[in-house]
# Entry
Amino acid sequence: MRAEHARSEVTVRDRVWWSDVDTMGVMYFGRYLRFAEMAETEFFRAIGFSYDQIRAQFAIWFARIHLEVDFRLPAKLDDEVICRAELVKLGAATIHFRFPLERARDGIRLADIALTVAALDATTLKTARTPPALRHLLQQQLRST
# Structure
């Protein structure tokens, strides 16, 4: 996997592996989320925090609370896929991402993923406001829609 970082979005590239596909060589629908997860993880690294650092410094976790996937075309075995993490909205406790997936060789859109995460207190697992220092970094990355 390769990751590229730019203001307000992070791009990851990876191949569709044998473990991602069904017997027809088409990527299983649940495996599309692997690309979004990689892009989300790299997004937080790009602003200076791994998930472990977020938990250690701010005592919060990010729970996935909403997910939508629009499948456009199938990804196939050995396709190189590009996934961008785009921050689109920031609430008091929520972060809304968009993850377009494209086939690298021709830029054809394969899927669109929308994900909302919510900050939770790491001890109580109750909703928590995004800490000011982290919120400031996220606001700097906010993508205009």
Notes: The longest strand covers residues 109-121.
